[in-house]
UniProtKB/TrEMBL annotation:
GO CC terms in record: cytoplasm
Origin: domain of life: Eukaryota
Annotated Ig-like domain residues: 1-90
InterPro entries named in the record: Ig-like_dom, Ig-like_dom_sf, Ig-like_fold, Ig_I-set, Ig_sub
Name of the protein in question: Ig-like domain-containing protein
Cellular localization per UniProt: Cytoplasm
Keyword match Cell membrane: no
Classification via Gene3D superfamilies: Immunoglobulins (2.60.40.10)
Amino acid sequence: MILQGPTSLDAQEASPATFVAQVVGAPEPEICWLFNHTDVIKPSSCVQMQQFPDGRAVLSITKVRPEDSGEYTVRATNPFGTVESTAELKVLTPLPEETIQCPEGTSLSLIVEATGVPPPKLNWFRNGAPFVSSPDMQITEITPTQHRLEVNELFLTDSSEILVEAVNPFGRAVTKATLVVTPDERKKLEPPVFVQSPPPQFTAPETSTVR
């Protein structure tokens, strides 16, 4: 019998993924893993399978690819029968890096959301360091897996790389954006002024010429 079946996973492309099951039986059952219920998985340079004396069966993929998305079944067989348990793997393709341009003096609101089993924790970084909120730049937790970054007023010094990572015990996913704050073109505009003007009063002889 299967005491514990494998757990469904969400994994970022090129990250590892591991399925663990625990099986008991007498005589000791033979274990195999199937992909999408039909293809028997064989060990390779990127796929390892292990069995332990306590009945644990482990399937490890070192670097998942989009085509690895699907259902993974552990099958245990002995002379008295066969039992199976299935879990799903979803391979997430990394989001492309974005560049966000905003004029100084404007506001900004960004929302990120992640999924996973179990639900991941979101961590924010700015220019490689943990994000520190300030009165003008704050992170709001809408839900544990959905956050909002709000900036009340952008300054040129706010230009930076914003990175968010989603982490759970089975993997890590990252999305990032480059924030570029551009100068306010209105600050370059000036009203007309006189650089030279006549004196308030001027008296000249009747026969002279004013220049």
